[in-house]
Each structure stands twice: as structure tokens, then as C-alpha cells.
């Protein structure tokens, strides 16, 4: 491990750190010692010299320090072993339902900048920050020791790395795996493309909402927009939907969705179409076609708080079009995956969409990210996925 160094916070309100929040911003720091290098692990003290926490430092990021711990303890391989073991232990109950889960969720598991997703016998590691990049050999060792996967694939590819001043890195640690893994989620099976898929390969955070389709999908005509590799589409079909149409803009994703449908024996009740969601909904509305269930799980329209107004308009327009295409008494499953979109605003946007489309709704279910993406109240950024199952009428 690198030699530890010390950084002191500014005096007064300018140096105050939010209680139990691991982020310290550049503006909160006194002038730092030039001997402290980007990526170094540092101890942080307040203006009176009292210990605040220990984490890693990167002056290129607005979040200059991300803390591992608020306790005066060594941050070394034993620390990482313990934190990964604690994170995995919290997820043990999921193994009765699935063999795919998020083993480490960054700040929520006191390992800021680290994501570890497990797909059957393969662990996928993402180091999103410079500090985590510098210690990833230790992290990879501890993943191997604690989780004991057959393969470890690094997929450190994200816009966050550019902000940290580091390039993307992908590749196998140790033995090269097949690059694809078969997983199960309750009764539903999926093939995950770890190497070429989006993010780590699959949207594990939507597990609970996919499984909740079992309560509403029986015999229904379903439209799944932004379908990716068929997570919602295939689940709806397995849970008894009469016919499911999935749509996305990338043919390679749709190819894997068809493969997933075939894997579950529901290929005859599913179809996957390359299409833009907005254009497809407008065409459906023009034709007068109706669906019993429409699923909207778009990528984040909202990368920064500054784009909140524009993003809200996008969500509203999308939901207006969907509500108009739903048969009376049908269900809209609608989501936002941006932590910058507060639930209050998302809820308001849905009410506005209902008014604009001359519809009414009742809430059947409020949706959250799955339990392997834990929400820490002291860290609001850990809560990002929000959604509703709405019964549409009028």
C-alpha cells in the first residue's frame, strides 16, 4: 500500500463535512502538501486536528476525497477483505432466488468507486475512480479470496473515469472466461453478455420489478420499450403474458433478447423490434393499437441537475404517449434511473402526463432498486432508481 499522508479541512462552515457522508469536495480543503499525489490514501482532520476519516485523494475531481472509513483504522488488504466479506454476507439471502447479484455497491458498502457484480461463476469488477484504480490489484485479490468466482472480468469503462483523469480499462484477471454467463432470476433464465453488454452486462437493480410482473402479466398484451436484452419482456412472457413486443435501438441487444426468449421457451409469444421508443409510441397512437401493459425503463435522461427541466419534459412526453396507448384498466410500469431526479418531481411529472393524456391512474406498486443496491440514508446518491406500476383509466 502507498504511504499515508494527511490533509486538513478549512476552518468554519467551509470545511464542515456532512455527517456520515464519504465525499469531501475540493473547496473544503486547505492548501494541500505537494508531496501528496493523486490517488494517495490520506487521513483527513478538521481545522482543529481532530480525525475525520480516511480515504483516497484526487485533485482532478470536484470530489477531492472519498472516504473509506470514519474510524481511525488502517486501510489495507485486510480492510478490503473485511468490507467485501461484509457486503457479500448482506446478499446471502438472495442466493435462494438468483445466482446474479451486485456484491459491492460503491459508497453504500464503504468501498467508494468500486462496483462488483456476480453472474453465476464470473465476477465483474468496475473501478470508477483514480483511488480505486490504484488499489485494484488488492481488490481483485480480495474478490478472488472472498467471492471465489471462477473468472474475474474488469470492465472499468465509464464516463466517470474521464472526470477522474483516467482511461477506460477492460480485460480478464487470471483465466479468460467465456464472456457470457447464464443466470437465473426466480423461474426466468438469461444469458448475460459480460464483455459487450451495457455496463456490467445486465440491469440487476430491476430484479424486484421484473419479478413483480408475475402479479399482472397473465394473458396480457405487453409492450416493453428500451427492452435491452429482454429482462422485462422475457419475464412477462414466462409469467404468462399472451404476447410481448420488446423494442430497442441496438440490434445486437435484440439478438440476445431473442436468445433469452428461446432459452425460456417463450420465443413464439415474443417479438423484438429495432425502434426508437418515442417514434414507435407515436406510430402506435396513430394506429389506435392498445396494450394491456407498457413498460418504460429508459436510460437516464438526466446526467446533471442542470438538465432537470429538459429531462422532466422528456419523461412527461414519453409517459403521455404510453398512457394513450394503454387499454382502459391496463398497467403502466414506468421508471427513472437518475438520482438527480427526485421522486417528488418524477411523481409530479407522471401526474402532468396523466392530465395531458386525459387519463387517470391509481398506484398499484411503488418500485425501488433491488436490495443488493442498498440505500444509505446519509448518502442520498445511493438512492437512484424509482418507479411505479400504475393502473390507467379514462
Describe this structure in words.
With 394 residues, this protein is α/β, with parallel strands linked by helices. It has 3 domains: 65 residues, Archaeosine Trna-guanine Transglycosylase, Chain: A, domain 4; 102 residues, Transcription Regulator spoIIAA (2-Layer Sandwich), CATH 3.30.750; 191 residues, Rossmann fold, CATH 3.40.50. The protein contains 9 helices and 19 strands. The strands form 4 sheets. It has a 7-stranded mixed beta sheet, with helices on both faces. It has a 5-stranded mixed beta sheet with strand order 1-3-4-5-2. Helix 1 packs across helix 2 and helix 8 packs across helix 9. The longest helix has 17 residues. It is globular, with a radius of gyration of 23 Å. The mean pLDDT is 95.
